[in-house]
Amino acid sequence: MELRLTRAPLRCGLPSNSADADGDCERWVCGAGPAGISLGTEGQLDATGVDVGKFCAADPWMIRAGEGAVGSEETTMLDSSLPSAPRRNPWHKGRLIGQKRPLKPKDVWSIRVRLQLERRVRNLALFNLAIDSKLRGCDLVQLQVDDVCVGGRVRDRATVIQRKTGRPVQFEVTEQTRAAIHDWLADATPRVGQYLFPSRFHDRSHISTRQYARIVHSWVERAGLDSSAYGTHSMRRTKAAQISKKTGNLRAVQLLLGHTKLESTVRYLGIEVDDALGISEQVEL
Q: Which CATH architecture has domain 105-281?
């Protein structure tokens, strides 16, 4: 039987997890026909120099028997000379993932002093309020003026509805945070009903969570810290970690963070690991 070797675009028959199984690919088709060369031993070459006997060898991985016309036998195989599909690197390759570290008290004061010296009024109010409120980034950027102000003065305590859980959570506003918010409102003059931290873009009502994340990273970098180890949750975790460390009252921390379960607070703060290491450091042998 005479066979000829041609190229034809066919559906790839490799398994779905193969690197080359990404759609149509070019195959070698060995089929019967009046023109061509016989299917023989290795060493027989066609006009392009392809070893027909080698390509038409019965390899169960590289060859798949196809159904052709009546009276003919076709075999398709993947051309080994075709480049394989490029592999994508994992998104977390080379990145520090997992829980973000809380800021230490000395880091908080370092960032706060820098903002005061540079007279960054908005960023100082945003930083102090992020530490006091212990809110998630999505809730912090959506705070409105009347959430923290009443009758022209800044509240001592405020209550907001969490976007993630839909449950209310309270937080305190310390004196230095009230002073920073007062200076920011005097400088920006936002009206009641507007967002506390409006966006500078006309098509956005408040700063985005991505912008807030960039601001946090700039604070951390200017304080001489590794920005990859800190994030927006570092601001949320900072004061809660200090309360837990000094008082050990997890129930209070749970209420301040707005968690529904105490186990969530334990996992969020990493209490188990810190407590275990603290106990181990106190034991000397």
A: Orthogonal Bundle (1.10)
| Residue bearing tokens 């449950």 | 167
CB 131 within 8 A of CB 123: no
Residue with token string 């800044």: 154
Tell me the mean pLDDT in the region 185-191: 76
Structural domain boundaries in the chain: 2-78, 105-281
What is the per-residue pLDDT across 34-45, written as a single tens digit (0 to 9) for each?
444 444 444 444
Counted residue by residue, the chain has a size of 285
Total H helices, total E strands in the chain: 11, 9
pTM above 0.70, yes or no: no
Rounded alpha-carbon distances, angstroms, from residue 221 to 88, 147, 197, 217, 251: 30, 31, 22, 6, 33
What's the rounded Cα separation, in Å, for the pair 54 and 260? 67
